[in-house]
Write a structure and sequence with these properties.
CATH class of the largest domain: Mainly Alpha
Strand order of the largest sheet: 10-14-15-13-12-11
Strand content: 15-25%
Structural class: alpha/beta
CATH topology of the largest domain: Transferase(Phosphotransferase), domain 1
Number of helices: 11
Distance between the termini: 75 Å
Helix content: 25-40%
Oligomer: single chain
C-alpha cells in the first residue's frame, strides 16, 4: 500500500494483503466485500507520528467510509481530493498542523450532514470567509511596516559591520594569546610518559591522585609526573579540573604544568620539577588565586605538602584537583561532599557546608602554625590532638618560647611570632579534623 511507504509506517502486522486472510488483517483498518473483492472501508492512523502533507494515495481508497488522521504532525493545506471519496462519512483531521482555507466542498458536506468533519486543534486553519477578511486586514500593515523594516535593516547592517571589524581585531589578539598558551602545554602519549619516567622507576611523592614519579624530557629537563591511580579517590573530574586550571593560570608561586596525558584510562600530569621537594614557607600564590584571577579560584586543599620549592627555594602552590572557580570575588559555594585534608579544613565548612576564600585563609593559617611550631597538624599519639588544642593552653600561660620550634634557635623577631599566634582561634571543631 502506497500510504505505508509514504509515511514509513512500521507496524508489525502490516505485512502482505491488508484484508486477507481475515485472521491476519492489518491493525487499525477494516475491510468490506464488494463483488467478492475485499476493499478497505475503515482506516485509523491516529497518533501514528505521520509527518508531511496528506498523501494523494488516499484518493484510491474509493470505498473508504471512515478516515482518522488525528493527533499527528501533518501540515500544509487540507486537500480538496478528500471530498472526492464517494463513500466517506467520517473524517477526523484534528490535532495536526494544517493551515489555510478548508476546502469548500468539505465544508458543504459537513453542513448538509453527509460528512462528520473534525478539525479541532489546528490553530492555523480558518473558514473561507474568515481567511479573506484576515488577508485584507493584514495587507495594509505589512505594506506600511515594510519601509521601516528595510530602513532598520540598513542601520543594523552598518552597525554589524562596525562590530565585526572590532571583534575581528580583538579575536586576532586573543587567538595569538591562546595559541601562545597552548604551545606551552604538550600532550603526551602513555608510552611517552613511560619513557620519561624510565617505566615509573623513581617515586618522589604520593597523594590522593596517585604516585608522583621523577622524569626527564628529551631535552634533559627534569619533570614531576603525577599518574592517576586506579585506586585513587579522585578521578577524571579532578584530573580535568587541575589540567584546565593550570593551562590558564600562571604565577611565579603556582607550579607550572608542562603537559598532560589523557589516553583512555591512563591519565597523567607533567609538572616542572621542584628540586627541594615540599617545604613550608610563606607564599603569594594564594592571593593571586583569590584576587588576581577572574573569576576568583578557591584552592580547597591548602597544606604544607602541597607547597613545593624550586632549586632557588621559591615556594609554589600545587595540587589543584579540588579547586573551584567562583563567579564573583565574594561568592560562596555550598558543598555536600568532603573536600580537603583533615586538620586543615575550615570548621565553617563542616557546620554550614560553605566554601569561599576564607576557607583557604583558614588553611593557610594552619600552615603558618606548622611553620612556627614545627609540629604536625594532628599529633600521632593515641589522643590525636589538633595543633590548636596544643597551642591554646600555652598561649594562655604566655609560654611563647615553648610554642616556637626550637630548631629556629631564637633567630626570629619575637613580635612577629606573637603576631602570628594572636590569630589562633580559641576552639576548633573535632569534626573538622577527625
Amino acid at each position: 500500500m502506497d500510504i505505508k511507504q509514504t509515511y514509513k509506517i512500521s507496524r508489525l502486522d502490516w505485512q502482505g494483503d491488508p484484508c486477507l486472510p481475515p485472521a491476519y488483517k492489518w491493525s487499525g483498518l477494516r475491510c468490506g466485500s464488494e463483488n467478492s473483492t475485499m476493499r478497505i472501508t475503515y482506516l485509523d492512523l491516529s497518533s501514528s507520528s505521520l509527518e508531511g502533507e496528506v498523501s494523494s494515495a488516499f484518493v484510491n481508497l474509493t470505498k473508504m467510509e471512515s478516515l482518522n488522521l488525528s493527533n499527528n504532525k501533518l501540515r500544509g493545506s487540507v486537500p480538496e481530493f478528500l471530498a472526492q471519496l464517494p463513500k466517506l462519512k467520517v473524517l477526523d483531521l484534528s490535532g495536526n498542523k494544517f493551515k489555510g482555507q478548508i476546502p469548500h466542498t468539505l465544508m458543504e458536506k459537513s453542513k448538509n450532514g453527509a460528512l462528520k468533519l473534525s478539525l479541532d486543534e489546528n490553530p492555523d486553519l480558518c473558514l473561507s470567509d474568515a481567511c479573506e477578511n484576515n488577508n485584507k486586514r493584514v495587507v495594509l500593515p505589512i505594506v506600511a511596516s515594510t519601509a521601516s523594516i528595510v530602513a532598520l535593516l540598513i542601520i543594523l547592517s552598518v552597525l554589524l559591520i562596525i562590530c565585526r571589524i572590532k571583534k575581528r581585531r580583538q579575536k586576532g589578539a586573543k587567538l595569538k594569546e591562546e595559541q601562545s598558551m597552548k604551545s606551552k602545554n604538550r600532550t603526551f602519549t602513555y608510552s611517552q610518559i613511560a619513557n620519561i619516567t624510565s617505566n615509573f622507576t623513581m617515586v618522589i611523592g604520593e597523594g590522593g591522585f596517585g604516585k608522583v614519579y621523577l622524569g626527564t624530557l628529551t631535552n634533559g629537563t627534569h619533570v614531576a609526573v603525577k599518574v592517576l591511580s586506579s585506586s585513587s579517590k579522585q578521578g577524571y573530574r579532578e584530573f580535568q579540573a587541575e589540567a584546565q586550571l593550570l593551562m590558564i593560570v600562571h604565577h611565579k608561586n603556582l607550579v607550572s604544568l608542562v603537559g598532560y596525558c589523557d589516553e583512555d584510562d591512563n591519565k597523567a600530569l607533567v609538572y616542572e620539577y621542584m628540586a627541594n621537594g615540599n617545604l613550608r614557607q610563606h607564599f603569594s600564590g594564594l592571593e593571586y588565586l583569590h584576587t588576581g584571577c577572574r573569576p576568583p579560584i578557591v584552592h580547597r586543599d591548602l597544606k604544607t605538602s602541597n607547597i613545593l620549592l624550586t632549586e632557588n627555594i621559591q615556594a609554589k602552590l600545587a595540587d589543584f584537583g579540588l579547586s573551584r572557580a567562583f563567579s564573583t570575588e565574594f561568592a560562596s559555594h555550598i558543598s555536600t561532599s568532603l573536600a580537603g585534608t583533615p586538620g586543615y579544613l575550615d570548621p565553617e565548612f563542616h557546620s554550614l557546608g560553605i566554601i569561599n576564600k576564607k576557607s583557604d585563609v583558614y588553611s593557610f593559617g594552619i600552615v603558618l602554625l606548622e611553620l612556627v611550631c614545627g609540629q604536625p597538624v594532628i599529633t600521632r599519639g593515641e589522643e590525636r590532638n589538633h595543633i590548636i588544642e596544643w597551642i591554646n593552653p600555652l598561649i594562655e600561660r604566655g609560654d611563647i618560647q615553648r610554642i616556637i620550634d626550637p630548631r629556629l634557635q631564637a633567630c626570629y623577631p619575637i613580635v612577629t611570632a606573637i603576631g602570628v599566634l594572636q590569630g589562633v582561634p580559641e576552639k576548633v571543631s573535632k569534626v573538622s579534623w577527625k
